[in-house]
Amino acid sequence: MSVGHENKIYGVYEKKVSEEYEKNISKPINVWEEFFADKRRGGHRSSAEEFLAMEAREKLFHLDGGKTLLDFGCGAGELLVYYAPEYEKTIGVDFSPSMLEEASKRIRERNCENTTLILADDKTVWDKLDSSFDRITAAGVFQYLTYQEIDEFILNASKYLNEGGKIVLFDMLDPRLYPLWKIGLFSQDKSCWKFLCKTFCGVRNTISSSLKNRPRDILGYSHNPNTIKKIANKNGFEMICVQSMYYEYKYHAIIFRK
Ligand SMILES: C[S@@+](CC[C@H](N)C(=O)[O-])C[C@H]1O[C@@H](n2cnc3c(N)ncnc32)[C@H](O)[C@@H]1O
């Protein structure tokens, strides 16, 4: 459902979302859609506005201009409201009605009149768009997609990307650094006992989740940057990988045409 153009955001938005949600309630729901269905925050390291503003500044630096932007998995709009003033047109997409409700409030509070929200997932979003973009971005979202879904996303995104456009995937979980962060290696408090406990819990969770064929924790899957690069190349793109400034165990994938 596109909550845009004819409806813009605001008033009718909440009603439209709930109608769409009711309509879709019978379709099989994936584990992450279920997980996010009632969430209202994007899980940033801090929810303080000062921190979100810093994070958004880093992301705007890597987005590096453009006039139109699609924020896939925009969540509660915590970054989107910082992107909006820098673009002529911004669209936020998410499959979580509660997240979009929060995003809608934020957008209203900040008077981001150039912003439209769409309730959709990585498969359904493309049919709901009526224009292409200079930037297609996602922050902290791709850990909820498999490699195959990422491949399909990049292929679809390439059809909605303007000439000179970029796909910028922020905060991908780095499989080399994430386990080290999980056991507390980057923490200020490096007590030996805590380190051992976390290592033990980490190993136990990894074994039990792989036996149940489920992701290890709510942070989803980690993705090897080299594999993401191969996927980008296969779809006719170059990719550069940069370290996330605020999350030691995450990286950004900046994807652009060869
Ligand atoms: C960790 S939150 C990040 C939100 C936002 N990007 C931010 O940085 O504040 C991840 C968001 O991605 C959304 N999401 C995850 N997988 C998705 C999918 N396949 N389609 C649409 N949204 C998805 C979730 O609903 C959630 O709002």
UniProtKB/TrEMBL annotation:
Domain of life: Archaea
Gene3D superfamilies per record: Vaccinia Virus protein VP39
Keyword Signal on entry: no
GO biological process, one term: methylation
Domain Methyltransferase residues, every copy: 70-165
Keywords in alphabetical order: Methyltransferase, Transferase
GO molecular function terms listed in the Swiss-Prot or TrEMBL record: methyltransferase activity
CDD domains attached to this UniProt entry: AdoMet_MTases
Record keyword Hydrolase present: no
Leader sequence residues: none
UniProt-listed Pfam families: Methyltransf_25 (PF13649)
Record's protein name: Methyltransferase domain-containing protein
